[in-house]
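Run Phage gp6-like head-tail connector protein through structure prediction, thanks.
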Amino acid sequence: MKIPVIKKLVETQSLDALTAAEEALMEEQPLAIEVEGDDEGEQLTHVIAAAWILTYMNDNGVDFKTALREYTKKVRVSIS
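Sure, done. The structure for Phage gp6-like head-tail connector protein is below.
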């Protein structure tokens, strides 16, 4: 997971575009947007994170850093 890639996606893509990219990756289809990543798994991680963060920002009226902090807390809990 690369924070700069996630930040770029949050700043440049809509939630609809991120959702479409997630679906395309799941179906092994070409992406309509550029998503950096070493492989499709990392690209999917970036897209899912960006969509979650963008939704959290919109729902809670917070900035990127706050939403990112909440996302990383969620990830840490899920892997511990």
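The helical segments are 3-12, 15-26, 40-60, 64-79.
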